[in-house]
User: What shape does this take?
Amino acid sequence: MELYFIRHGQSVNNAGWNNPKYKEHPDPYLTETGIQQAEHLAKYLKEKQHITNDKVWNIQNQYGFGFTHIYTSLMERAAATAAPTVRALGSVPFSAWIEIHEEGGIYSREESDDLKGLPGKPRSFFEKNFPELKLPDHFDESGWWNRAFENDQDRQLRADKVLADLIAHHGDKEGQPDERIAIVSHGGFFVRLVSSMLKLPWRQAAFDMKSWFLLNNCSISRFDIRKGEIIISYINRTDHLPAKLISG
Assistant: This one.
């Protein structure tokens, strides 16, 4: 399996990060920059979807991507990033995967609410805005979250389960073609997933420093998961974006 992790485009929370007057949104939408990033990503991946040489190790995707499945979290910024690529590619299965959401889930940023869990967008929002997206059968108008703020222990357990599910459903199988999976998700969840893959302690580095894997908006990272090994092919590629659209 080739696993491609695509971080969502710039959200209003990303853009307001250094503004002390900005009030965070619980489910932020894309900025105009984020929309442009998603459009550039879609154009690039459409041009590179077809694999032109399957006889060599296509380690930098110089011969194409050949996605077989695309998944998105149900946070608005991720679905809005994934949708242009899905529409550009035309026939790649596109499904929601609730468990690849950002850390914490959907929760209030009001100080008086003490991180109170919120519903998240209802089914009708996604049916209207992303009709290509296959939604879970149980997902209805009550929203997809409806839980308390996600604690630290649950975050890593969730990433562990996502990795196990990826391997179970899309791992290499004898006599079958390789699957190439793209998941459109979030920076914090990326660090959790890498921690699961490499069995890294959360945020611990040498000399009592803290570690973090930085991802730019709409960056692409690739992991090859084969029998007995996980290969980190590349992390945080942004060469498909013009310099003016590279954001954190």
